[in-house]
Design goal:
GO terms for molecular function: metal ion binding. Helices cover about 50% and strands about 10% of the residues. By secondary structure, it is mainly alpha-helical. It has a single domain, classed as dinb family like domain (Four Helix Bundle (Hemerythrin (Met), subunit A), Up-down Bundle). A 3-stranded mixed sheet has the order 1-2-3. Strand 1, helix 3 and strand 2 form a beta-alpha-beta unit. It starts with 5 loop residues before the first helix and ends in an 18-residue tail after the last helix. The relative contact order is 0.20.
Length: about 170
């Protein structure tokens, strides 16, 4: 049994979301990546890649003092399978970071930057508290886009209208 640590607690939160998130990602063909439900909305492809990348951000905030959007690694998949591989790799990286982090290290400051300019700073713990919710939020957006494009929504917290199992 794993010791009770903040990292292990958040790993359980992440694990509770991984399966449903992956089911969403595996259903999205690259042909719909340019879709936007409104002119001010993100493109479906951007949102898909964002959802696939959020677990990496968990690792980054534990491992580094900041993330700079201007220099952060950019991911340009050649196909939908690469998105799934990226998500799986990011989840594993998050698991590794969460399982190894000491509670005290989460009191350190983490900053979000853009081209070196600090956009936001807070404790790593505060950022971690928000990150799983951030994943859930953007996955929710993604399911709306999926519905609009006629892509079946998987069961997330119970049966979906597309996967009724009575």
């Amino acid at each position: 049994m794993s010791p009770i640590t903040i990292g292990n607690t958040y790993m359980k939160e992440l694990e509770a979301e991984v399966t449903a998130t992956r089911k969403c990602l595996e259903r999205i063909p690259m042909e719909v990546y340019k879709f936007k439900p409104h002119e001010t909305s993100m493109e479906m492809g951007y949102l898909t890649l964002l959802v696939a990348d959020i677990p990496r951000w968990i690792a980054v905030l534990i491992e580094q003092p900041y993330l700079d959007f201007a220099t952060d690694e950019k991911f340009a998949p050649a196909n939908a399978e690469e998105v799934l591989t990226r998500f799986d790799d990011n989840v594993q990286r998050a698991r590794n970071a969460l399982s190894g982090v000491q509670d005290e290290a989460l009191q350190e400051t983490f900053s979000l930057k853009n081209s070196g300019n600090v956009l936001y700073s807070s404790s790593k713990l505060s950022q971690l508290e928000q990150m799983v919710n951030h994943l859930i939020h953007h996955r929710g957006q993604l399911t709306v886009y999926m519905r609009m494009k006629g892509i079946a929504i998987p069961s997330i917290y119970g049966p979906s209208a597309d996967e009724r199992h009575f």
